[in-house]
């Protein structure tokens, strides 16, 4: 009769699988190629790292190597201390400082280099993309660039054969470690054209 507060007698319906593609509520992200549950798809779960170009290193003789990214060009670079020249530069540093007060840190760095460990400075290197997983290829059509945001390639059973790219805390992702396939080159050209259009500050015209 009166407005009742007891309106919560409707049982919570389980979230139905959107289709019969994945029976266990698991979906496949067409951007980062991770599998995910539709009910735990928070913003920030979908992460794609930059992919760097190992063949285009800049060396300015400062004991460091600078790699541009394929996906974002010179806008995103990663710096590596070069093992060959670093021990020499450490000695030079010590000689220059002449105090030996700050050598403890340098020595451990030098030791790591001598052991062949490549020291990449990636602490401040953010991802290329961070957002929500998606299963709708049309929604991210503009993002496919043939380098790190790649289209699904499925096997005969319909499973995606792409590898989910992830950046470790020690090394960036290089394109040499990514398996590319047919169609990636076309996406690259397309993405390049798109970038040039933006640079020319022209009005973005969607290709028909
Ligand atoms: Zn990028
Ligand atoms: Zn994703
Ligand atoms: Zn995939």
From TrEMBL:
Biased composition, class Polar residues, residue ranges: 81-92
Superkingdom of this protein's organism: Eukaryota
Protein name: Uncharacterized protein
Basic and acidic residues composition-biased segments: 96-110
Residue ranges with Low complexity bias: 1-19
Compositionally biased tracts (Acidic residues): 185-195
Region ranges (Disordered): 1-20, 79-110, 185-208
């Amino acid at each position: 009769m009166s407005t009742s507060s007891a309106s919560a007698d409707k049982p919570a319906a389980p979230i139905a699988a959107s289709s019969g593609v994945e029976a266990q509520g698991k979906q496949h992200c067409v951007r980062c190629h991770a599998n995910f549950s539709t009910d735990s798809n928070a913003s920030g779960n979908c992460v794609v790292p930059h992919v760097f170009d190992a063949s285009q290193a800049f060396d300015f003789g400062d004991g460091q190597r600078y790699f541009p990214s394929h996906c974002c060009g010179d806008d995103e670079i990663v710096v590596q201390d070069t093992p060959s020249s670093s021990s020499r530069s450490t000695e030079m540093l010590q000689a220059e400082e002449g105090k030996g007060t700050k050598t403890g840190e340098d020595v451990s760095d030098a030791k790591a280099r001598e052991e062949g460990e490549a020291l990449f400075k990636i602490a401040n290197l953010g991802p290329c993309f961070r957002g929500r997983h998606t299963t709708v290829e049309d929604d991210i059509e503009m993002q496919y660039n043939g380098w790190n945001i790649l289209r699904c390639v499925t096997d005969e059973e319909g499973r995606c054969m792409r590898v989910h790219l992830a950046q470790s805390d020690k090394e960036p992702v290089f394109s040499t470690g990514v398996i590319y396939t047919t169609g990636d080159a076309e996406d690259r050209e397309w993405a390049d054209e798109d970038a040039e259009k933006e640079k020319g500050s022209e009005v973005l015209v969607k290709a028909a």
